[in-house]
User: Fold this.
Amino acid sequence: QVQLVESGGGSVQVGGSLRLSCVASGFTYNSACMGWFRQAPGKEREGVAAIDTEGRITYADSVNGRLTVSKDGATHTLSLQMNSLKPEDTAMYYCAVDPRLYVRHVDITTHLSYWGPGTQVTVS
Assistant:
């Protein structure tokens, strides 16, 4: 059973940093495409960062240069380092995965099939 559990959210001042983590289980982690998405109140969910099975990463233009995604195969943890945070980064952040072995390439517009419960990030 696929499980994703996010942590690391919180409240931070403008310009501050946070590091989100997503611990994954129930699928072949090193062969799965994963990503981070966010949804602010009243807005549609948007892709923030995605990493495919070859390690290629795509970022939303709005976060490029400030957020860094990484995937740890030993701990089955997907991380999102968030620096220079802005009020517009305030949202619920979700980790997601497509565990199908034949899916090798994704980007931030790809719909992924399994989602964690999310972790709230508030920047003020």
Remarks:
- The mean pLDDT is 95.
- The radius of gyration is 13 Å.
- The chain is about 0% helix and 50% strand.
- The CA atoms of residues 30 and 74 lie 9 Å apart.
